Amino acid sequence: MKRRLAWVCIAFLLLFTFTACSQNKTETIRLAEVTHSIFYAPLYVAMAEGFFEEEGLNVELTTTWGGDKTMTALLSDGADIALVGSETSIYVHAQGSNDPIINFAQLTQTDGTFLVSREKIDSFDWEQLKGSTFLGQRKGGMPQMVGEFVLKQHGIDPRSDLELIQNVDFANIPSAFASGTGDYVQLFEPTASIFEKEGTGHIVASFGAESGSVPYTTFMSKQSFLDDNAETAKKFTAAIYKAQQWVDEKSVEEIAASIAPQFEDTELEIMETVVERYKEQGSFSTDPILEEDEWNNLQDIMDEAGELPGRVDYETLVNTSYAEEVTN
């Protein structure tokens, strides 16, 4: 009788252990980011502060360097989720995809680039770009379209008022400017601030401050992935929302310290400067909901740049259900 009772107890303990392990099973998500930048601070905070772990997720992050490469990774099942500009989902839609790319959580809500001049300018005016050589971003990408949009807002025709260079690969733009190409360049952080500290260039304006709210970088997935993994998408969004709130509430110093392991070659002082710039201009979304007016502003910018294949209804490529659920 005692032996039988012992076996029952052991069986119960094994069942309990198996059930507990099953409930606590960690799911791996393959995430492809378009570039690696302090601009994406809330993502790195979610990783550093354990917000993904709290949701039972393990995020494997890969930097794919460019919107086209990021979207290729997503379409070819090399990634489950992509962090990239929302314009890429519109391009895929225009090609008639049977498995549309759906924007489900927003990370940044302004452009993240800055205008950097080669020479120090004490009193900058956009008119000074006329007749200059401008090293822009990749044609058809969100940074370049925003850049052209802002130039036009200031009465500058990027095709006739300056020499526009946009055939340099995304990852090589900083080195091209450093080696002498261009009077002005459009750069992400922390490169812009590093160049300024080194004397390679000088930040004179912010494209994010000039262009207004847009879904500049969002998390997106194939519709099929979301259909099969709705709970996973919700958990991922919940972790991002926790990080967004954390970034909104914490000091510049605390944020920089949290994401520092992601940027081992960047001085903490530079990181703090960059975080402060982005916080001041409201680049970090405080929640993951992509609003319809932002979606429309995005398409206006694409249209102005001549890159919009056709307007796409908000409901067609945007799903805010996970974001709304985790924020309520």
Automatic annotation (TrEMBL):
Listed Gene3D superfamilies: Periplasmic binding protein-like II
Keyword DNA damage recorded: no
Highest taxon, organism lineage: Bacteria
Keywords: Signal
Main location: periplasm
Family (UniProt): Belongs to the bacterial solute-binding protein SsuA/TauA family.
Name of the protein this chain belongs to: ABC transporter substrate-binding protein
Organism the protein comes from: Metabacillus halosaccharovorans
Organism ancestry: Bacteria, Bacillati, Bacillota, Bacilli, Bacillales
